Amino acid sequence: MATRLSLRAISASMASSRIVSASIKAGPSTSRAGFSTFKPLLNPKATTTPTNVSSSSTSEVKAQNTKIDVKGKSKSSSGPEVIPPLPRPLGVSTPPSSATKTWSQRKKELLDDDRHKAKRKALVKEATQGYFHDYNRAKGISGGKLWIAPNVLIREDKALYFPDISGKSLLGKETHTTDLMRGKVTLVSLIATRLSEEHEQSFTQPVLEDIAGHPEFNFVQINHQENKLKSLLVSFFISSLKRTIPEDRWSNYLISGGEWSKMDVTNPLGLDNKLLGYCYLVDQNMKIRWAGCGQATPQESQALRRATAVLLGRVAGTNPKDDVAVNTSKSQDTVKS
């Protein structure tokens, strides 16, 4: 006579068979720790390994080392983004001139293959970037700062020339930067927005306080508006600009409108973001010996003060500290050419 099984035993065996069949159809699923959860069930001889602790710790580590990009894909991050130093000397290789270009010079530029290649490269780069590219970069680390200014002067034999830029001064005269900078140590600032004005002041204000009234020093400000409509609006507010700028700087404040040449001005000066402020220290030979962009760090501000003092001392032929009061912790010997 066959033995009878209890109702509880029959239900338990049926439940276990359903679990096994479901696991076989679904296939082995791998947990985050990398172990198969159904291998111990299918292979009784396999040793089981606890995965709760390892999977939870692994998930926490992955959450810290990954971030989600705009498209929703996760990408690993190796830590905070680091701002690189100034990668190259800025400027053009030929000395600038305020004279009008002759027909032969224009013809040479039109037939120059390097210029055409540079224009095509600039157009491709501009086409691949979105309309709000500069705005998105300005929201990034340190306000979109492009590089860290050098701690010392750029060597004179490696330095390049500051290109000639023309514009109308606050006195209403057409002025060229070459005529303003020749024979003097010049601090040049490029601004286009309110944000760039704040960047400029972080660099120039300490220097102007140090060397106010020095006969060999020159301060040139260039307000560049690429949009012609904005340039026209700025020209309407010249009276308000005169109220905010000292009268002795009116002749050195230029308003430049229109798009600058990428080959002659934009690329040589490293103007990769139009929203930032840029600052250049130009020697008496119109060579760029120091450059900074974005919001100045305390180290950059001190470096600009030392560099300006050294150049002024070399023009005067004396020790910079005899002519300029520079309150820095480092001596002027740390700035080398």
Automatic annotation (TrEMBL):
GO terms classed as biological process? mitochondrial proton-transporting ATP synthase complex assembly
Q: Which InterPro entries match?
A: ATP10
- Bias regions of kind Polar residues — which residues? 94-103
Residue ranges of the region described as Disordered: 24-117
Gene Ontology terms: cellular component: mitochondrial inner membrane
**What Pfam families does the record tag this protein with?**
ATP-synt_10
Signal peptide per UniProt: none
According to the UniProt entry, which residue ranges have a biased composition of type Basic and acidic residues? 106-116
Task: List all Low complexity biased stretches.
Answer: 47-59
PANTHER family referenced in this protein's UniProt entry, alphabetically: MITOCHONDRIAL ATPASE COMPLEX SUBUNIT ATP10
Q: What is this protein called?
A: Mitochondrial ATPase complex subunit ATP10
